[in-house]
Design a protein that fits this description.
alpha/beta; 8-stranded parallel β-sheet; TIM Barrel; two-stranded antiparallel sheet
Length: about 325
Amino acid sequence: MEYVRFGSTGLKVSPLCLGCMTYGSPSWRPWVLPEDASRPFIRQALDLGINFFDTADMYSLGGSEEILGRAIRDFVPRDDVVLATKVFYPMSARPNDRGLSRKHILASIDASLARLGTDYVDLYIIHRFDPQTPIEETLDALDSVVRSGKARYIGASSMYAWQFMKMLAFQEANGLARFVSMQNHYNLVYREEEREMLPLCRDQGIAVTPWSPLARGLLAGTRGSGTKRDETDTLAQGWYNQQAMEDAIVAAVQQVAQARGVPPAQVAIAWAASRPGITLPLIGASKPHHLADAVAGIGLALSAEEVSLLEAPYRPRPVAGHD
């Protein structure tokens, strides 16, 4: 596997990141896998050459971090992998156990490190923008996390481009640790990021690691499949509700896949990974073929004609995934 430069940093990462929201406790979400079923996917990812793993404190309320941390300790030297985790969402009913206040960030990084069983994370990501906390407070706290050695880099996730640029400008003006990555919502059926965020990231040298490149399985053909996630994922049901357009895009994916003799997931991942400014897609895996399809998709080169066919049905849609 050929490794890629992470934005304008010197960090080298695999061209895929394994997202670990699927690993934790089924009591948090019914489609989540428990630890004994999760570990083989982390092992498989490592065997395939994937060195980049993403989790968050809110996934199974810390359970995902614990499972990932134990697996990494058992399977590979810590310095051989790039670990990312995130902060923002509520971890309890307590009023200060959420958001991007200095209090919550400094408490959360320590709690995440304890669950992961490591002294540092490679990438600490703010999971969303916090309109209730001044950006000065958030960015100063993140700078403290980096200067303390608890995180090597910091990143951000889904928000408006003006919000991200406002924070980047404040970091630069005040000599604070700068965001190096953006993890945003981007796939064939949701391309609104092309308007502002992707051009901004290209201009600023920011690594882009889109989440849900398969649109929660929609582009792999799982809409109406009857799986636990298809039936209970209310977020996906709210995001992917332009059925006529989405069905046309799914049909185009299937057409290209059939002509190629590959699964639709490979085509959707190939498209996402090859778009201008994209560093690497973040993928989930709950079945053995998911990782194999993702790796194959990275190596699939689509023609200009295939890209045009895949993109033709898209129409502008409301922003989704920033909440």
